[in-house]
Amino acid sequence: MDSLIITGNGPLKGEIPISGAKNSALKLMAACLLTDQPVTLSRMPNLADTRFLSELLSSLGVEVYWPRNDSTCHLNAAELKSTIAPYEQVRKMRASFNVLGPLLARMGHATVSLPGGCAIGARPVDLHLKAFEAMGADILIEQGYVKAAAIHGLKGAEIEFPFPSVGATEHAMLAATLAKGTTVLKNAACEPELADLADLLNMMGSKVSGAGTSTITIEGVEKLNGATHTVMADRIEAGTYAMAVGAVGGDVLLKDAPSEALQAMCDVLAAAGVETIAEPEGLRVKRGEGRLKAVNVDTQPHPGFPTDLQAQFMALMATAEGVSTIRENIFENRFMHAPELSRLGADIIVRGKEAVVTGVAKLKGAPVMATDLRASVSLVIAGLAAEGETVVNRVYHLDRGFERLEEKLGACGARVQRQSE
Ligand code: UD1
Question: Residue 32 catalytic?
Answer without folding.
Answer: no
